[in-house]
Automatic annotation (TrEMBL):
It is found in: Cell membrane. Pfam families: 7tm_1. GO terms for cellular component: neuron projection; plasma membrane. This is Gpr7. The keyword Cell membrane applies. The chain crosses the membrane at residues 45-72, 84-104, 124-145, 166-190, 217-240, 261-279, 299-322. Keywords: Cell membrane, Disulfide bond, G-protein coupled receptor, Glycoprotein, Membrane, Neuropeptide, Receptor, Transducer, Transmembrane, Transmembrane helix. One of its GO terms (biological process) is neuropeptide signaling pathway. GO terms for molecular function: G protein-coupled receptor activity; neuropeptide binding; neuropeptide receptor activity. Gene3D superfamilies: Rhodopsin 7-helix transmembrane proteins. It is a multi-pass membrane protein. Residues 63-319 form the G-protein coupled receptors family 1 profile domain. Its main location: membrane.
């Protein structure tokens, strides 16, 4: 059985009823062991983690809702890039909306919300892994096409707001298909020794270790290797074309507005990779080594998880600092209009 909040620990030794390992992944054969006393030393995480998750939830929900509101209400914000930003904000908002349920499970030490909600929550947890990087991949493709058209001094009649809507819908459908296997395996597991002890996990069939590794490889390839490789190739080609532009053409450089948008997309991408790369690197470690579960490893695991969660609340601040049009539109929305 596996839970999304344990990126670093392939097979924890015990399922503890009173400590923070409750969110980690377990094998059924390990459910009856007694927790070592020194693991309770990390009881402070019982308080710290809900506080961190609550801050991420409050900031993310407020910031992403503001982004959605501004883009939908301000006429000048209806651009192709902002359509992708809008969908990215919706995906982040959806994730932050379910964080309170994760906090409740953490504090209660068991899952009280039933089978259906368990599938929904774990599906959204996994959706969060794929949605950001896929929308950023689409934004990188769009930036590459903009740079290419500028270099060649050609227009892009197919690059429209309506086309961006269709592409965004395709991304949603693609990620739903990718996440569907996790939805199938998500469910409530009841401890055989304590029927009151319920956990919302991914319950794989036998052999569980093989299914566990397959799920991690699946996530690593589709959620990191393929999109990140695509993005790196696109930006390398983009920089190459900009560097080798002929000086006697009209496209000596991107105009100011296009350059700012390209820089913004690049920084949003860099922040996303900063937040998610440790998560995926920990997957490689989990697959290639047999680490002993220790309090330090648990602490690192939760730090990595919190860092990946934090990505959902950082993007609105990047837009506010890097996008003049967004900042102006937001200020205009806040202005008190005379009666």
């Amino acid at each position: 059985m596996e839970n999304i909040t344990s990126p670093f620990i392939p097979n924890p030794t015990c399922n503890f009823s009173m400590d923070l390992y409750y969110h980690n992944s377990f094998n059924r054969s390990d459910l009856n062991c007694t927790p070592p006393a020194d693991y309770f030393f990390y009881a402070d995480l019982y308080v710290v983690l809900p506080v961190i998750y609550s801050v991420i939830c409050a900031v993310g929900l407020t910031g992403n809702t503001a982004v959605i509101y501004v883009i939908l209400k301000a006429p000048k914000m209806k651009t192709v890039t902002n359509m992708f930003i809008l969908n990215l904000a919706i995906a982040d908002d959806l994730f932050t909306l379910v964080l309170p349920i994760n906090i409740a499970e953490h504090l209660l030490h068991y899952w009280p919300f039933g089978e259906v909600l368990c599938k929904i929550i774990l599906s959204i947890d996994h959706y969060n892994i794929f949605s950001s990087i896929y929308f950023l991949t689409v934004m990188s493709v769009d930036r590459y096409l903009v740079v290419l058209s500028t270099v060649r001094s050609k227009r892009m009649p197919y690059r429209t707001y309506r086309a961006a809507k269709i592409v965004s819908l395709c991304v949603w459908l693609l990620v739903i298909l990718i996440v569907m296997p996790f939805s199938v395996f998500a469910g409530v597991y009841i401890s055989p020794d304590d029927t009151e002890r319920k956990s919302c996990v991914l319950s794989f069939p036998s052999p569980e270790s093989l299914w566990f590794k397959a799920s991690r490889i699946y996530t690593l390839i589709l959620g990191f290797a393929i999109p990140v490789s695509t993005i790196c190739i696109l930006y390398t080609m983009m920089l190459y074309k900009l560097r080798n532009m002929r000086l006697n053409t009209n496209a000596k450089a991107l105009d100011k507005a296009k350059k700012k948008v390209t820089i913004m997309v690049f920084i949003v991408l860099a922040v996303c990779l900063f937040c998610w790369t440790p998560f995926h690197l920990s997957t490689i470690v989990a697959l290639t080594t047999d680490l002993r579960t220790t309090p330090l490893l648990i602490g690192i695991s939760y730090f990595i998880t919190s860092l990946s969660y934090a990505n959902s609340c950082l993007n609105p601040f990047l837009y506010a600092f890097l996008d003049d049009s967004f900042r102006k539109a937001f200020k205009k929305m806040l202005e008190c209009r005379p009666a």
